[in-house]
Design a protein that fits this description.
Elements (H helix, E strand, L loop, with lengths): L3 H7 L1 E5 L1 H6 L7 E6 L12 E3 L2 H7 L8 E6 L11 E6 L4 H13 L4 E4 L9 H7 L7 E4 L2 H7 L3 E11 L9 E6 L7 H4 L4 E4 L14 H14 L3
Parallel strand pairs: 2-3, 5-6, 5-9, 6-7, 8-9, 8-10
Antiparallel strand pairs: 1-4, 2-4
Helix pairs in contact: 4-5, 4-8
Length: about 230
């Protein structure tokens, strides 16, 4: 299930680790089967558990250092949530670790939905699921044409730009689409044309070695500032 075409064909994905599997209990995801070398460590109430050896776990796991269990789960149909006051809009994010971290950030700040461009890394990629640390069960992820979304949304479209307004001087509106661009190329030009406001995170240090921030780091800083003014 490490290949998107197989996940789509069989409508299944993998969740690794007892902690992540425990998060599935209170989620809409249906578990088909759990393979575990430590079945006694799994939460009570989980069914369809097949005991396996550590060597067998290594053969089916996609982690370099497998932990304890792997669950096979059914992929849910996409449901688009209307009128979310704050949404993350991801324009071509390619790194699974970044998407997983962005899902964790959304969960931390109570953001219900992330809208991904159609070329963003697959949400069900095992590395994304692992990096989200269970937060994938509480954040709605959909894939859409971003032009259609941004043109028709009632939210204010805000994106990052080196020449944008200073993040710390802005009074943010109540309804926001926070657009985050590709790790190497940033927000693509056709998406940038649909921004209502551009913001930048000012540099306070003197070092020129760091040219830019990782996209998930930048998102954390921006969301912290947005929500600090709502408390």
């Amino acid at each position: 299930m490490d290949k998107k075409k197989f996940r789509q064909k069989y409508k299944l994905f993998l969740v690794e680790g007892n902690k992540n599997i425990a998060e599935l209990q209170a989620s809409p995801y249906i578990i088909q089967e759990i393979f575990s070398c430590q079945p006694d460590s799994l939460p009570s109430g989980l069914s369809e558990i097949t005991p396996i050896s550590e060597n067998e776990l290594k053969k089916i796991s996609f982690l370099q250092h497998p932990k304890d269990s792997v669950a096979v789960c059914e992929i849910n149909s996409e449901i688009f949530l209307e009128n979310c006051p704050v949404q993350l809009i991801l324009d071509g994010i390619q790194d699974p670790g970044n998407l997983g971290t962005l899902i964790r950030l959304a969960d931390w700040f109570g953001i219900e939905q992330i809208i991904c461009s159609e070329d963003t890394v697959d949400f069900y990629n095992p590395k994304v699921i692992q990096a989200s640390m269970g937060s994938f069960t509480r954040v709605n992820i959909v894939y859409r044409n971003l032009n259609d979304i941004l043109e028709n949304s009632e939210n204010v479209n805000i994106g990052t730009d080196m020449e944008g307004e200073n993040l710390y001087n802005i009074d943010f509106p109540e309804k926001i689409n926070l657009i985050l661009g590709n790790e190497g190329n940033g927000i693509r030009p056709e998406t940038e044309e649909l921004l209502h406001r551009k913001i930048t995170i000012p540099r306070f240090g003197n070092s020129k070695a760091t040219e830019s921030l990782n996209v998930s780091m930048a998102a954390g800083i921006i969301l912290g500032q947005i929500y600090s003014k709502r408390s």
